[in-house]
Amino acid sequence: SDACGLKKGDRVIVMLPRIPEWWSITVGCMRTGIIYIPATTQLTANDIFYRLQASKAKCIITNDTLAPVVDSVVSKCQFLKIRLMVSEGSRDGWLDFKELLKAAHSNHNPVKTKSQEAMTIYFTSGTTGYPKMVEHSHSSFGIGMTSTGRFWLDLNPSDILWGLSDPGWVKFAFSCFFSPWIQGACIFTHSMLQFEATTVLNCLSRFPITSFCGTPTVYRMLAQHDITSYKFKSLKHCLSGGEPLNPEVMEKWKSKTGMDIYEGYAQTETVLICSVCKGMKIKPGAMGKASPPYDVQVIDENANILPPGKEGDIAIRIKPTRPFCLFSHYVDDPEKTAASERGDFYITGDRGIVDEDGYFWFIGRADDVILSSGYRIGPFEVENALMEHPAIAEAAVVSSPDPIRGEVVKAFVILSPDFASHDPEKLTKELQEHVKKMTAPYKYPRKLRIKVFIGKLEIRTRIYHSCL
């Protein structure tokens, strides 16, 4: 930090792929009291410009691939003073990380920071407006990830955890940084820029990885391969987070590997809210029980706690004492911070129910609920129903405007290869009838968009509307 002219409280955007320098830079920021802001390497010039201006970051650290993109907007960034590049080559106007590291003094006294002081800021996207800046304190991740590592990830010093996440997302902090670090476990990582199922399967069989954490989409893509031809000699614990886990994915993975998938539910603002831990009964479709130290409840619009089985907003108690592992606030946005609270609770923005055993069940984002002819429909439930049909490889459900019903359910589906040649009109009707049987009939998709792929090539897209 001395060589860069940075001091405690300065903000730095760290936009790097999964390379060892990411960890050393991030730990360096923590030790010097510099607030680091992770960013994905997939950002465009406009995305980078917005983040630099919104955060008032004094420094950006990236690689030679993205340095030209940063340079394309740098003339408009009045707050940015330092550009630092992690690469083999050099570039005009950029400091060289490797040269600075060589010249750095071996003695270093960490800056003293208090538990509630800002440590990191994550940008998170809502369904409307620009991304928000979520600030976390040193204790929020540094202590708040303890129960994540100990109970949900079930890590000990002999474990090796591979978390498939981008360094720009908070899930990376869970499975690739704080939780394993606190537990003294080892982190495995791979530099692949794009997900490749065969690479993942080869790594799981070649290396002594004991724990694996991915999204449901990752498991779904892996399960489409001949997993029985791979031997996972060390793998014993599979975890899922980042999006709701469909029961269908869990069943397919279990049938092919013999292993269960343990779900965790969290947000950029919260660290782990709910999880299914080793030893707990797995209820397919449930997100698990509240994670310490949170008091999680389902509440109504007046902040009253609802009884089991009643749908409402999933919320975390913040009064009389705000949990230390909850985000501090939305940076420069007191209105949004205030809007995230209702009575004694922080509102997650997710709708759900809790059952008699204390398991939480996800229904959908509060702002995603489809209102059709007065009925409230959660997209996730319809997606789940579609995924239970053998023809469907992937499904996404959204709201679509309708002159009579206000909104109707619209589904986008990708067919499994075995069904690519089926008559699409017959298959559409079959899928609609299937959803009617799996869930309340009014939830079926009245509009359906079918995509057919062979390998990576899309060969046919058709849209089918039903007026039934």
Folded structure, characterized:
The strands form five sheets. Strands 8, 9, 10, 11, 12, 13, 14, 15, 16, 18, 19 and 20 form a twelve-stranded mixed β-sheet that branches. Strands 2-1-3-4-5 form a five-stranded parallel β-sheet, with helices on both faces. It has a four-stranded mixed β-sheet with strand order 23-24-25-26, with helices on one face. Helix content is 26%, strand content 29%. The protein has helices spanning 20-32, 45-55, 67-71, 97-103, 138-142, 146-152, 170-183, 197-206, 216-223, 247-257, 334-339, 379-387, 424-438, and strands at 11-15, 35-38, 59-62, 82-85, 95-96, 118-124, 132-137, 160-163, 186-188, 211-214, 237-240, 261-267, 271-275, 286-290, 296-299, 312-317, 329-330, 341-342, 345-354, 360-365, 370-372, 375-377, 392-402, 406-415, 447-454, 457-465. The chain is α/β, with parallel strands linked by helices and 468 residues long. The protein has three domains: 11-113, Rossmann fold (3-Layer(aba) Sandwich); 137-365, Rossmann fold; 369-465, ANL, C-terminal domain (GMP Synthetase, Chain A, domain 3, 2-Layer Sandwich), CATH 3.30.300.30.
